Q: What sequence folds into this?
């Protein structure tokens, strides 16, 4: 689960890291009030940032400066009227604009290869890390945190020296790096990214510079949300599609796509394969949908509702390989679902494995179109979707 | 003879008294697996599987009383990482974790404990492994349906569940049997990787060809291909990668299956595997034909 | 550093463990007031416990029950008048008396052999663990906590099942066992012991029983006190001898003994050996004193003051093997110290190793009695102490 | 030839630019030890030891630039456990920690990391090790004064500092030289135990007799004796235990030196050592005589 910058900053601040004071607002007037507080607190300029769960908001005009409360209100009004990559902007963050001397990239993330929490740092902050990785991979310094003890002090120093820091900045960097790992572990986050981690003037300190976290991106592990109700409450239900929410609540993995063939499959790998074969057969899948293992007939009916809620669906392909899941349960669910449906679309069903024979009898009795192999099912589905099978 | 599970496997089932654990343990036993103990904290002293199998409070007790050398874990997600650590600390060397939805940070810790004790974890969120055997009864650990297997000499390794069944069924239908069929699990952090599995198959005299079934996300297929290019030249090898049609940035069901930026794409995996001498199928049903084209012929 | 039961209980309570509410008092009237609060809170009886840093206070009359506030005042007066193993009782703890169904022993301690935090549990609580170890060693269940992750859930269960617990009590036990390890790690404690961990009636719970920590003993790691100022503040300066305090503040390891020969040595092992050889030569050491490595002349003078503060000292043996420590520095310190001294006692000095020659010259010029070997030094010291060399 | 330190030792000094580190490194170099690098965070790029030795910010850099294979740590107590972990993680296999006063829980963690990386720690709070050598220059790591040593073939292992010097001096005075003289440290949690040291000496062809110098507290001497009784029969062996006159329950300077209840008493240690065939001295000065009585004769 992705959380907004505002909440990610709060996690950092709660961990004692240097994050500039900021507020959020859902209205231009609110943004003005927030800006007034910051200006009276000594800010020379404020930055107003769209809170949306997609990247690239800067290029989309979602991040702007303002020099007065009035300007902040106008700028916020503009941003709150935006839609960025299809997502409406419902909230903005208002923070003092910093004088940035240099930008650093720093992130703690779950890493598959090392099977641990990987710290990545680069002196080339501000840009996307993928860009740095492509242009100058040697500029990225990596350290894997200790699996139980977190980031050890020597590891933090290795990272900091690795990107050329020293003295007071190095010390601050080490505190922040260890803090990111602590946040990742205590919040069960897959990713805690600070970009930019900015070097700003600090005349009061030896060296005259300090580090502040100017942006933060945090992705939480869905499997661990149960034990963090306070974080789960941050789910942005407003920006979640109602159908996506139903799927989540039913324990169904559902991703809407742009095509016309609705797919219902058990197992993520098989579901991806089904999409691949539909595409290969010249069709265009309307969704990824995994009903999971051992699904009962009620879940099958829910999956059907979810698929049909997409008006683009012109045909449905059901592909079940029974293992834990019993084929006859799925067949019963399909029959029940069809009876409840308002909208009728052609359907091809392929059920093999556990209780496939019982399923076949039920389906034949119910007049369903069936298929023996996955390839055949994909071809039939494409044919059923007809001319509408191409991308909408 | 096979990898990971065989006639010497003396299996304990953690969570044997639960619904899932009990059901699949009965299936395993029916296939021929020796299930010699169960562990459910608080249920020690009971007997399970039609009164044939003792249940213990702790893995340490179970191992010391029965000599179990492998474990299959059906413990709910909140306690599964602890169950893995318990098995490793008790000296179990081969640990299968079927449970899905384990928090990934829990797995980081559990895997470090597994390594500290010199054990091997398969999974989590994996279907297990089956070694069908023509000579005596086969052995299966986990939840792979028994019906899809045929004794043989092709090693199968896969990140997914039902897709594996699909692939294995198509092999069996074509008369191509398996030495061991292994599901390594679809999570980002897993105990045994594709490369680990290939190393095991390479060292197994009974395995004469390899089927690798991967999917988008991460770079485990590329890492396995890099190793196989140098070390697996003696075996015919084919592969299938799911997710060619998957959009970027969306997690396709499996926590591990996501294309992020330039990494995890099906096309890169397919290129890497082809460069390492794998024939890559466009559908699981093509695997038997490609195996033959790669030079494999079932023993008659 | 040992801390009192009252503070140890606070550490447990702060960690969320079940510790009965208690107060401390330094006067009988204070004890009465504390008891009144507990009686009005529903206590049937209260227990009044001497707060002293030695074992065996129960047998010494330092733990007593009272059924009324008046009785509590009288009992507290009696206990506050006690001296237990030479230590005056300056404070008492007043807690509700529990109905104890069974007693469990549980401790987390630094274990040399396993090089980790060892958990020890026994169903035979209430007695000293050494007694249990001697009588029925099989009754003690041991588990070594993970070096970084603390006590893992399965380890806590192993301990609990091992001492015959089940159900609700097992769950509570697991929480407490993990808590002791957490306290040991977060407070840098060498020992966190709960004895008894009592099973008491709890009609409100399934099983009708619950666990409470009725006594607690905590020893903190002196080497880590710097990073726990809040715990270091618990040092019982009142009950610390002023000489012990000076030694501690000077970084000198000093233990007063009962004999007549004051010893000044560099290195703990060599200091113990010096005591052994003095004893073997028929003398009786007045103290253990290690001036540490690299000691300068000021520290030597401080050590001399500390030794001479003991009126039982009749002779002094100085034994220095120079390594980091320079012999001439010690010799200078001895000369300076002698000049400042009020009391003159005979002294034998043996300095070998780094700068021994320079030291010998200084000592000879200063008219000190010297010795070549440690054995010779011990014999000379015993002779110098004369008849007074036997135990006082 | 010796144990732990020898002519192949390529030493890095953590804390080389500090007062203690600099002083003792110069002493070591003068004795013949190859000091090839120093590490002090923030001082990378400087040179130390009269401009002969490069200083690095991290151990990883130092190892990769110089091939150091051993480290000697003079870092202050608050950072010493981290320095140990850093050395182990950088691949240094033999790590001496001289620092005293390291919090014991820090050591629990550091030792686990040392073990995880397959390294060996000596200490903390130890004087180090010296391998005097007749053939070429000797090697010493740590703070043991060079002057007390004589090349020879008696292995010395001890928990204490100056007491060791006392014992070694008495041997040297009597014409008995040392293969290696090792101080394992007086803390409760240490990396290399008496038993570990005896195992190393037993496997060292150049060691023909053993001197063990223990003290009250813990049971490391008993554990070493139990092993030696079965495995050290071929070597003459003598011991000394400090603390016969120590009272119960008081910590005698060393954090590890305390008699608690029935454990840690000198008498038990002496009995255990005698049962394992050690001759036990009443004073360090008796060690040379007892060595000879145990059948040891210096090679002429």
A:
């Amino acid at each position: 689960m992705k959380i907004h910058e505002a909440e990610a900053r709060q996690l950092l601040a709660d961990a004692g890291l240097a994050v500039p004071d900021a507020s959020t607002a859902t209205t231009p007037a609110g943004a003005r009030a927030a800006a007034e507080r910051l200006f009276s607190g000594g800010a020379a300029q404020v930055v107003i940032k769209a809170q949306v769960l997609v990247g690239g908001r800067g290029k989309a005009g979602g991040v702007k400066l303002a020099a007065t409360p009035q300007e902040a209100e106008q700028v916020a009004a503009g941003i709150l009227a935006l839609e960025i990559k299809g997502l409406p902007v419902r909230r903005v963050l208002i923070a003092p604009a910093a004088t940035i001397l240099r930008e650093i990239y720093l992130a703690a993330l779950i890493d598959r290869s090392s099977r641990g929490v990987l710290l990545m740092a680069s002196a080339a902050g501000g840009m996307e890390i993928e860009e740095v990785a492509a242009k100058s991979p040697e500029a990225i310094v990596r350290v894997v945190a200790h699996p139980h003890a977190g980031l050890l002090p020597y590891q933090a120093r290795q990272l900091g020296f690795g990107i050329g820091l020293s003295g007071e900045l190095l010390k601050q960097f080490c505190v922040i790096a260890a803090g990111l790992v602590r946040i990742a572990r205590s919040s069960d986050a897959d990713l805690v990214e600070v970009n930019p981690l900015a070097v700003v003037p600090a005349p009061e300190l030896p060296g005259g510079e300090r580090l502040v976290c100017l942006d933060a991106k945090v992705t939480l592990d869905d499997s661990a949300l149960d034990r963090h109700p306070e974080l789960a409450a941050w789910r942005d239900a407003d920006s979640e599609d109602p159908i996506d929410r139903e799927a989540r609540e039913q324990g169904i993995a559902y991703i809407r796509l742009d095509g016309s063939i609705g797919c219902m499959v058990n197992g993520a790998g098989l579901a991806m394969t089904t999409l691949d074969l539909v595409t290969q057969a010249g069709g265009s899948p309307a969704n990824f949908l995994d009903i999971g293992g051992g699904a009962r007939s009620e879940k099958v009916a829910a999956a059907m509702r979810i698929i049909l809620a997409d008006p683009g669906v012109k045909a449905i392909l059901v592909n079940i390989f029974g293992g834990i899941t019993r084929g006859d349960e799925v067949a019963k669910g399909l029959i029940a679902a069809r009876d409840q449906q308002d909208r009728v679309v052609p359907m091809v069903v392929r059920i093999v494995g556990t209780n496939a024979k019982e399923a076949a009898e039920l389906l034949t009795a119910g007049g369903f179109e069936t298929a023996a192999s996955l390839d055949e099912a994909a071809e039939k589905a494409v044919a059923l979707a007809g001319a509408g099978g191409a991308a909408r | 003879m096979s990898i990971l599970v065989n006639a010497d496997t003396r299996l304990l089932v953690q969570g044997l008294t639960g619904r899932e654990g009990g059901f699949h343990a009965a299936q395993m036993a029916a296939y021929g697996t020796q299930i010699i103990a169960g562990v459910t904290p608080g249920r020690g002293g009971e007997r399970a599987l039609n009164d044939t199998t003792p249940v213990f409070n702790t893995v340490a007790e179970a191992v010391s009383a029965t000599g179990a050398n492998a474990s299959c874990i059906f413990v709910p997600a909140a306690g599964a990482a602890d169950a893995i650590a318990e098995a490793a600390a008790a000296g179990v060397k081969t640990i299968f974790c079927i449970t899905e939805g384990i928090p990934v940070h829990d797995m980081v810790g559990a895997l470090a404990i597994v390594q500290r004790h010199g054990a091997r974890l398969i999974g989590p969120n994996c279907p297990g492994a089956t070694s069908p055997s023509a000579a005596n009864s086969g052995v299966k650990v986990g939840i792979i349906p028994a019906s899809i297997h045929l004794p043989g000499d092709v090693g199968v390794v896969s990140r997914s569940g039902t897709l594996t069944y699909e692939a294995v069924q198509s092999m069996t239908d074509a008369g191509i049997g398996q030495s061991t069929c292994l599901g390594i699990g679809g999570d980002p952090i897993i105990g045994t990787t594709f490369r680990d599995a290939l190393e095991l198959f390479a060292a197994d005299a009974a395995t004469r060809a390899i089927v690798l079934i991967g999917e988008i996300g991460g770079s485990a297929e590329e890492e396995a291909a890099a190793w196989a290019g140098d070390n697996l030249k003696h075996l015919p090898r084919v592969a299938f990668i799911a997710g060619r049609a998957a959009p970027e940035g969306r997690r396709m069901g499996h926590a591990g299956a996501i294309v992020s930026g330039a990494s995890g794409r099906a096309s890169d995996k397919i290129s890497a595997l082809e460069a390492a001498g794998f024939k890559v199928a466009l559908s699981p049903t093509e695997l038997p034909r490609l195996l033959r084209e790669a030079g494999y012929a079932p023993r008659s």
Remarks:
- Chain B touches chain A through 61 residues (CB under 8 Å).
- The first helix of chain B runs from residue 19 to 31.
